[in-house]
Structures are given as structure tokens and as C-alpha cells.
Amino acid sequence: QVQLEESGGGLVQAGTSLRLSCAASGRTFSNYNMGWFRQAPGKEREFVGYNSRSGGATYYADYADSVKGRFSISRDNAKNTVYLRMNSLKPEDTAVYYCAADPFRAGSPRDQATYNYWGRGTQVTVSS
């Protein structure tokens, strides 16, 4: 069982930055694919980005087009934590942000169905 807890959400102004954290349990966190998703009011949950081990100590990240160039994902395996750095925030980034873990690396990291474990989410509100 993997437990995830997001933190760092809040109310910010457009154009500013915010960093979300997701603390995970599990002894092999460094091998997990970690994803970030978000759900805006009245909309379905959507992919934001993921971070995946590509070999050795090298990790790969990919992002939705809507956040590419503004958001970045990093991780600290010693702390079992993955981060979502969000720059140049826009009102349309307002959503509940969820982190998700795929310990088995069994499917597409962009697909929500791939992820076995989810956090409860943290609210990000961007005012114009």
C-alpha cells in the first residue's frame, strides 16, 4: 500500500509561482512513476505531467501541452517526495491537483487508469 499526501496549494495571483509537494510512503519510491493530474470545477480530471525513471539515476518528465514550459516535476528520493513547480500561473490553472503513484510501471504514464494510488488533492486557485 502506498499513501500519498499533497501539500502546497493555495490562492495566488496570475503570473506568480507555486510549488506543490507530494509525500509518498513506500520503500522503493525511486522506481515509481509519479504523475500529477488536476480537476477544474465542472470538468473531468486531466493529465498534467509525470516523472519516470529512465535508467540508473536518470529520470524523464513529460507534460500536457497546456502546461509545457511553465510546469516542471522533480523528485527527492531521499525524502520520498515529488514536486510540481508551477510558474506563470493562469486563472485556467485553477483546479484541485492530485499526485498519483504507479509502483508497477505497467501502463502509459499519461493515463489515469495506470495509477494505483492517489492523494486526496490540494486546491490551487489562481486569481486574475
Describe the protein.
- This protein has 128 residues and is mainly beta.
- The protein contains no helices and eleven strands.
- The chain has strands at 4-7, 10-13, 18-24, 33-39, 46-55, 58-63, 71-76, 81-86, 95-102, 117-118, 122-127.
- The strands form two sheets. Strands 2, 4, 5, 6, 9, 10 and 11 form a seven-stranded mixed β-sheet that branches.
- The protein is globular.
- The model has no long low-confidence stretch (mean pLDDT 95).
Class from helix and strand fractions = mainly beta
**Rg, alpha carbons:** 14 Å
Low-confidence stretches: none
Task: Give the end-to-end Cα distance, rounded to a whole number of Å.
Answer: 40 Å
* Total number of strands: 11
Instruction: Please report the number of helical segments.
Output: 0
Instruction: State the major sheet.
Output: 7 strands, mixed
What percent of residues are in strands?
A: over 45%
User: Which descriptor suits the 3D outline?
Assistant: globular
Mean pLDDT: 95
Helical residues, percent = under 10%
- Elements, N to C (H/E): EEEEEEEEEEE
What's the SSE blueprint?
Blueprint: E1 4-7, E2 10-13, E3 18-24, E4 33-39, E5 46-55, E6 58-63, E7 71-76, E8 81-86, E9 95-102, E10 117-118, E11 122-127
Parallel strand pairs: 2-11
Antiparallel strand pairs: 1-3, 3-8, 4-5, 4-9, 5-6, 7-8, 9-10, 9-11
Key attributes of the depicted protein:
single chain; 128 residues; mainly beta; seven-stranded mixed sheet; 52% strand; globular
In a nutshell, what does this entry contain?
The protein is mostly beta strands. The chain contains no helices and 11 strands. The model has no long low-confidence stretch (mean pLDDT 95).
